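From the methods appendix. Each design record in this collection lists the tokenized structure first, followed by the designed amino acid sequence. Records were kept in a plain field format so they could be parsed without special tools. The example shown here is representative of the layout used throughout.

RECORD:
FOLD TOKENS (229 positions):
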């Protein structure tokens, strides 16, 4: 605590410049590090769970859109969902947007771009980030989804005082959030493949990850086939 107080004091006096550069989680090993095979199995398992979670989240979001765009009283719809249909007499609450205007909320997704268009759109992201060993990582940056590796990358740039590179990374973060996630993934995967999954010089790998995970190649089922979503 004493150290923190001193740092704050110096910062207030402008003796030093203090800036937040991400939080690093620390873990304590409770048993011996598993062997490579076990680590691989754990990584596979975690990857499967994450894909499953992603699918569930998208399905939930679709349910919300169906709810918001349904042609009926929203309160009645909700009450029905929770098994309490009688809570809204005659199925009309008289207060929700449907009861008041009989108009549904409209979601106008932008027209879908094709792969060739997306290839051009991802260029700034690829220019700002030299990571090529993880297409999902690049997709998340384009979509504005943070990850521990992204925090590490930004922190490493702060440490090396690469202000412009850090700014570039922040500029592209979330820049393609309206595009199709699967198609973006596909384009980034191709870009990674074109580079043989080799990162640009000087790209700091997620060096807190176990080595076996860094060497891992994406499993063949890396992308969720569209039909399953
Ligand atoms: Zn209503």
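DESIGN:
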């Amino acid at each position: 605590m004493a150290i923190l107080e001193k740092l704050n004091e110096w910062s207030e006096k402008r003796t030093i410049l203090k800036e937040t550069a991400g939080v690093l989680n620390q873990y304590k090993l409770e048993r011996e590090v598993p062997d490579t095979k076990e680590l691989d199995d754990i990584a596979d398992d975690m990857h499967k769970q994450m894909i499953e979670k992603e699918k569930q989240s998208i399905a939930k979001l679709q349910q919300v859109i169906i709810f918001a765009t349904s042609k009926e009283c929203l309160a009645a719809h909700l009450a029905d969902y929770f098994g309490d249909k009688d809570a809204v007499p005659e199925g009309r609450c008289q207060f929700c947007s449907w009861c008041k205007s009989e108009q549904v909320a409209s979601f106008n997704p932008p027209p879908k771009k094709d792969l060739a268009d997306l290839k051009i759109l991802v260029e700034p992201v690829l220019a700002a980030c030299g990571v090529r060993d993880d297409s999902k990582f690049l997709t998340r940056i384009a979509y504005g989804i943070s990850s521990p590796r992204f925090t590490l990358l930004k922190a490493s740039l702060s440490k090396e005082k690469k202000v412009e590179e850090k700014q570039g990374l922040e500029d592209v973060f979330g820049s393609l959030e309206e595009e199709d996630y699967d198609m973006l993934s596909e384009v980034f995967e191709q870009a990674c493949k074109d580079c043989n999954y080799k990162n640009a010089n000087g790209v700091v790998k997620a060096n807190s990850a176990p080595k076996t995970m860094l060497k891992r190649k994406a499993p063949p089922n890396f992308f969720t086939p569209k039909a399953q979503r």
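APPENDIX NOTE: DSSP finds eleven helices and no strands in the chain.
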